[in-house]
Amino acid sequence: MKKALAVVGLFTVIFCGGVQAEAAPGFFQDVPLSDWSYEAVNGLITTGHVNDYTEPLPQGRIMSRMEMAMVVDDAMQNLKAFTPAEQDTIQKLNKEYYYDIKKIQMLSKLDNADLEKAANEGNGTTFTKEEKAGLKKAAAFADKVSIDGYARLRNDHYQKDTGKTTRANMVHVQVNTTYKVDDNWQVHADLGYRNSFSGFDELKSLSPSENKTGTTMDTYVTGRMADNALGLKVGKWNEWNIYGWGMDIDCDFSGVQLDYGKKDFKTYFTAGKMDLWDDAMGGDREYEQVTSLRFFYPFDKKNDINFGVSWSSAMASRYQDPDQGRVFYYYTHAHHTFDNNWNLRVGVINSDAKRDDTATASTKTKSPGRWIQLQYKGANLQAPGSYGITTTYRYEPALTWPTVTDWCGLNERFVRLGVSWVPAKGILLDTFYTWAREIDTGARDDMYRFQAQFFF
């Protein structure tokens, strides 16, 4: 396993050298199970022409980009043995994992170098047994630990009926560390730092919001059991998932999440507590209890559906009756890809929330929330010059939508035009403008963003 052992060289470059590490997605980052690469490399492996890989990848086996790059690199070394169609697939994979393969090749060269000869030529010494053992331990450690993250500069402003206000003017640095216990279990520690430049809310905090300064620390464990059919995630983490509750969710979550399904159909069970900013928007809850059951099924490569139910604490900021205890939500979300350029997402969500007895709550609309998004192309962090354009419409009544999603204000409807662009590998620039109105009062609440992100 010369390629795997040579990973120690990469860590030397990252932590000891003056060369900047390649940008995200990280070398050790997991390739999502839904990614096309799994089916593609399995098709190549079954031909028998991929050296060192005689068995197809097991169903449900999660691979890192490093592992996937190894398979593609081996296929590239024997390219002429494949049919023209298979060669096209290999070339597409090579383009997708180009920089990862370059790292593999660089590390292989480092590993193949005669280190003892180099040491002799340099100072007349050789590696001792202890030094060799230390190198092996370093290589083993490098194979188990992965680090990725990003640095973000964000500038958000509201344009309200009362004038212009700043929502966020901040820097956010996130470093995510994963320790691979074995092939099935990982331990994660995600450390973040936020610093607000707005000047109006420079509060120190162990859980900083957009306009606070402080650090965050999330620790959790992930793993797979039952021959990869059952997945577990337990601890505290930031949950961002475009499929969460039918739309998307961005919140701090503490609890447990299970996913089941060895084939395409997946079932997700989540239970714990989360921060949905109730206390920051007029309510009194810092954390809400939640239990959810979600289902996901991709019909084919172009179509998938996500649907489910959830029960979460009634929130005063959503004009919900606190005596109700928990509110029951039900939703569905569908996604269709037209071609390489266009894709569409639509969704609907509703609830059995009861209004509280305040005069304001009696004026608020109670109807299903809706969402539709059309996207052209898409920014790819590994493809400089790539870009994406999205147009989104959201209708989010507070009584039927559990969270304030995608930077849509409480009880609002909006149209948003967004553009993202990758000027260089691992650098993402994005901006959007949102034409937003409060559903029942019509009050203006436009928002616009300028943001730069640097992934590593």
From TrEMBL:
Keywords: Signal. Residues 1-21 form the signal peptide. It comes from the Bacteria. This is SLH domain-containing protein. It comes from Pelosinus fermentans JBW45. The lineage of its organism: Bacteria, Bacillati, Bacillota, Negativicutes, Selenomonadales.
